[in-house]
Amino acid sequence: MTIAPLHRLANAPAARLVVLPSYRSLPRYELSFSVFTCIVVVGVARVFRIEGFCAHGCIFQSGGFRVFFRCCLYGFRFFLFHINVLPKFSYIYNIRQSGKKKKKNVIRGYQKEKRVALPIIGVPLGDPAGIGPEIIVKALKSAEVAASARVLVVGDRRVIEDAMNSTGVAFVIREVSTPAEALWEPDVLNLLNLANVDFSVFKKGEVSGMCGRAAYEYIEKTVELAMSGRIDAVATTPINKEALKAGGVDFIGHTEIFASLTGTKDPLTMFEVRGMRVFFLSRHVSLRRACDLVKKDRIIEYAVRCFEALRMLGVTEGTMAVAGLNPHSGEHGLFGTEEVEEVEPAVKELQAMGYRIEGPIGADSVFHLALSGRYNCVLSLYHDQGHIATKTVDFDRTIAVTGGMPILRTSVDHGTAMDIAGKGIARETSMVEAIRLAARYSAQYSKK
């Protein structure tokens, strides 16, 4: 049975129908009120012996009073009596009997939402003896993660089960060999199980070569999936440098591992916290050496690479700021000459090349300006200058993004915390943010 257009109802031979007015202007109804209204209207219909009536969202007919409810906005909001309004409250029309297939009804003003698949983020387990497994299972229960990404964990099943016991978080573990086999349901943890931890010798919270080697293998497999395009990005968890060395892994950290596995000469590290992005001209060198590295040519080369890394992330608008090295950016040579001799000439040359860049800007204010939106990123001139600024803003939400690679990688920026591993008290905030950021950037990420 279908409802004919209003202008064709008058002459259609069929049963009589009462059309109720619209309550289009009222706020959304709760289900309880909808059911109550239906009961009242059914009672009125029986008293006055009305053969049938309809309202937008439901149809009633005598002889069984079949009720059809249309569930709107994913089943949580109901619009009742939502039809075209006529001048009077009650009109009698005819309903045409038809054997044609019913068309799907669409509520006026709403279109069916086109569902877009969420990106698949691969998460290697990290060092099994650290807090990585715990923050993963906690993060996967987060509404932010569920709304932004589909997560595939690469690790060891028994380690995951141990983490669930420690945290009190429950999942149904689904072992898969490829992301295509995953079941993306809220209570399912999709796991590519490498089964590389021997629990007869495994000890939580202790550095071991076995765990260092296992952590490397998780990363290796996750990078393989990303390089083949089967996942959209990688969000890493903490690894332990001592454990890597004990396990015969000849790398000191994530960046070096990813550089080797992706064939990237010198990946860039960028921190992001609350929309503020920070690059680092130098990283793990002494402060004395960091000052020596502040050279015009190095700044120009590094700034160009930073602009390219931003472009790969889809960030093409805004201006880069270069932080000063000395107090007050040297006050024109009074407190140091690096700004006058190296930084300013580099900035002027970059501007002449067409890049939107300013500096040097005093380090005591440049990060505040970037956080308030004046700059899209800051090039800090040494490791701690940028680290202190970002982690003071929000330690847990400071996320590392590795740029310049053919794959996108984000990471928590804390360690394995062996001292609290297995206690279930590690905060998952950073892991949630790393997954969320990976998902957000993956849509725009360009490998070229």
From TrEMBL:
UniProt keyword annotations, A-Z: Metal-binding, NAD, Oxidoreductase
Single GO molecular function: metal ion binding
Record has Oxidoreductase as a keyword: yes
One Pfam family, short name: PdxA
InterPro entries membership: PdxA_fam (IPR005255)
Keyword Glycosyltransferase on entry: no
NCBIfam families per record: pdxA, PRK03743.1
Protein name: 4-hydroxythreonine-4-phosphate dehydrogenase PdxA
Native species: Teretinema zuelzerae
